[in-house]
# Entry
Amino acid sequence: MSGPLLEVRDLVVEYATAGGRFRAVDGVGFSVGRAGSLAIVGESGCGKSTIARALVRLLTPTSGEVLLDGQDLARMPERRLRPIRSRIQMVFQDPYGSLDPRMPAVDTVGEPLKLRGVRSRAEREREAARLLDRVGLPASTIRRRPAEFSGGQRQRIGIARALAGRPEVLVCDEATSALDVSVQAQVLALLNELRAEGGLTYVFISHNLGVVSEVSDEVLVMRAGRTVEHGPTGTVLAAPREPYTRALRAAALDPTTMRGRKPRDVLAAAKGATS
Amino acid sequence: MTTAVSGRPSAVTPAHLAGAAATRRRRSRRLKLVAGSICTAIVVLPVTLAGVLPIPGSDEQDLGARRLPPLTDGHLFGTDQLGRDLLARVLHGGQVSLLIGVLAVLVSGLVGVLAGSAAGYFGGWADAVVSRLLEAQLSLPLLMMLLLVVALFGASVPVITVVIALAQWPEVARLSRSLVLVEREKPYVDAARMLGLRRAGVLAVHVIPNIIRRAGLVVLLLLAQAVLLESALSYLGAGPERPFATWGRIISDGQDYITTSWWLVTLPGLVIVLLVVGVNLVGDALYERR
Amino acid sequence: MLDVTDLQIELMTERGVVRAVDGVSFSIQPGETVTIIGESGCGKSTTAMGVLRLLPGDEAVVSGRAVIDGHDVVADPGAAARLRGDTVALIPQDPMTALSPVHSVGGQLGEAVRLREPGLSRRAARDRAAELLAQVGIPEPRRRLRLHPHQLSGGMLQRVLIAMALAGRLKLLVADEPTSALDVTVQASILDLLLTLQEETGMGILMITHDLGVARLVSDRVHVMKDGRFVESGEVEQIVDEPAQDYTRSLLAAVPRLGSWDGASR
# Structure
């Protein structure tokens, strides 16, 4: 099958609020080829996480299409959707809340295997242990519960759980933003490895341009529910065309390249970019 | 964080530790647990062992030894108006009272957790039905209702159990509902749905197991209330029929003599108090340990 | 301004005594910004709270010396209480929860003003509050005084908290991750505000952060903290450009590279 693996067309998500209907995502479209990696960047409230939730159908878009291999998931009824949910999985932002606190790691990862039809418990545990080993969790710890793991380890369990369903697309919703930088670097390296060896396709949701530059081929910049700029990561970061992207770029602090700058300079650069 | 590894001496003195919040919390928890367990055991152990203890039968009358005060002629609690050993009556009666209490909270706990969780998780019509039932139960005069049911169906142990469960399930259901409302917003519930679990499956596999401990503690506290409720029903004459000597009936029978024989009412009353306080203390200690 | 010697903080937890801060020493001169940087659990926030004596006495034992404006707050916790809110103030990480949601911004700011100058009338306190809001760069201060916290953005709230700190005769400002709950485009403006106020008032700033970029931007000196101790200390340029310790190097290496880009040169 030719064409992009994941294609989103004119996606609109509206919420009912006290003041009427609020359009969180307003006509966003993009496509990602197999083994490609797209990042959606923006500040809080820009609608990027809403897109993530719409992609894995934790919410139903108001209109638009989410085509996975040509099949529209956007308004598919739950009954038909359930068998193909495993094809597009998500890694959540919150390493503390996204794992069932009562479930040992091996069972958390084993759950999608059960749904995939692996009947034998022994077989599930073997496969779960293999996946946990792949994401770098020591075999001696796999029967522990989430509370006994660090934030980075929990995120690894979350990744293993997402991988267990053998997904084609992995959506990472701020998957590293709750982690310390050194742990973040390890998790990003893991995600890059998985992509290189397994042909996974990524949609990265992040507010951090540095993270985006490490993991994505393409960037889509969002503001107030709309696409501001969209292009290859290198181009967008090195030579942003839109003022808002330039303001974001100016405000992102890379300690190694900001010789002698003061907040005022950053501010001036950001202002200069928007005006 | 790190524990002390350097050569630097610790500035924490025993006085600091003794006054530390952590120490205080642990001490108070342990105290509650020990005191509660002792109070509960003092009541529950003799009651369960009533059959093998060297005490007179609970229905052996001795009209020559009526209303003996406590500690006379080997009657630890004294005797009642028919010369029956009060201790024996309290212990044997306790078996029925406790049995009804335990059965009632099991039923009300099960119904409450299931109904409350379903209401909280599914919302919509499930929530509407359960919430209306909860409100209806609140708006009716409870004891009147219970007396009516007993009057209609007779005062057997199963009927009394059901009646008490009827009175208690809303408490468990309300709590379960609110716990589930909080729990269902957590990302792990989203994660389970994303994996492709059915909604009922998410509720059964992930949500209920995470609230059951907290809901269970309330059920434990309800045990004390169930025993009280059974005693109240018996006191009002709607308890299990004679010859079951439940705690409520013993007190009810003894109240005619309260001016002359205080122990007939006071001692069974104290036993109930001891059990209720004990169970509550244990529940408190377990709640704080979470 | 602030002189800390061999500060040690031990936390008494249910699992025993944990040494969160293990003998750190640093000082801050007036007009200087000193940053403690480290990853979560390294003890940086505990250090700040310990210096301000905001840790409950039945949970933490503080020892060593911490002299603020001539008063040793370790030996005399009462002195810390008198200094706080007058010459010393804290800017917390999360501005959303630091203000009372049911009172107006003006009411809370006015209260802070009257606390420092008890003789002031309500009206005068209100004028002073509006002045303070203007000083922290909030436009239309009189109108904002009537608003409640939920009607303001995170960046605005952080400015209100800074205004509150300014109500006293501020000499030392402790900022605990003041921008980590804010968007990046707001972050620079808050940091700029802090440095501007520092130029105006000559206050010392103790900055607590996990973000090397923020540290690079605002600090004069930096202390890199790990497991309750400083592993490396020095001028910010030196720490970032020529780190001497492996730990500092690994921290720097972990920061995702953005490459150089200078918006002004375009």
